Amino acid sequence: MVTKIQISEVGKRYEGRNPVEALSDVTLTVDDSEFVCLVGPSGCGKSTLLRMIMGLHRPSAGTVDVFADDPVLPPTAMVFQDYSIFPWKTVEQNVRFGFEGRRLPRAECDARVDKWLERLGLSQFRRAYPAALSGGMRQRVSIARALAVEPEVLLMDEPFAALDAQLRRVLQEELLALWQQDRRTVVFVTHSLEEAILLGDRIVVMSARPGRIIADIRVPFDRPRSPQIRTAPEFAELEGEIWAQLRDEVDRSLVGGAR
Known about the structure:
The chain is an alpha/beta fold. The chain folds into 2 domains: about 5-75 and about 150-255, Rossmann fold; about 80-150, no CATH class. The chain has helices at about 45-55, 90-95, 105-120, 135-150, 165-180, 195-200, 235-255, and strands at about 5-15, 20-30, 35-40, 60-65, 75-80, 155, 185-190, 200-205, 215-220. The strands form 2 sheets. It has a 6-stranded mixed sheet with strand order 5-6-7-3-8-9, sandwiched between helices. The protein has a 3-stranded antiparallel sheet with strand order 2-1-4, with helices on one face. Helix 2 runs parallel beside helix 4 and helix 3 packs antiparallel against helix 4. The protein is globular. The two termini are about 35 Å apart. It comes from Actinophytocola xinjiangensis.
């Protein structure tokens, strides 16, 4: 396997009046085309780690390396929980925004925008503004914008957490189908063990703050994976095993006041 992301002995400390040690001695390798899910208690540094991969935060210790095939284009794109789309831009303009500052021919940009609007079911809404869309449609716009730039690594920070249960289930299944078509490298932060098992090749379990990796579990279900795997006894058994490892850390985070 080809290594796409290498995180080596990473620590992160936020200085200030009340210093916070967010991460400690985190080492993780993500291979090309892997879908890796990060789970752990609130405040354990999952999102911080994701932002380090994106290059938005610097580690206080250790190194984070993304090995890109294209030396010119940014290798990563991120989808956030709160959509992060511009309310004054149309759906099409939001998806096109990812190309600003990138030297791509106009025809290629147009083709990519059309492709991802179609694949995310947004073509008929291309001239609509976000205020006219449901939460699920807004998140589709955010995902389309990230995928349109065709990043080598897609980073997703609890992208479905703000949605109701039904919409969340629909978008989980859409993401599963999309990923199984192109097998892009994905690092996905979630609090849902069910979501992690459905989508991931591996589930990385983190401790309460300061976040450390306490388990790295390979999901045993074959690809292509059907959403119906949720009903299998083995699915529930794996979810129970992961929760058994995570439960003490969640309790510890509550005692420590993590948010």
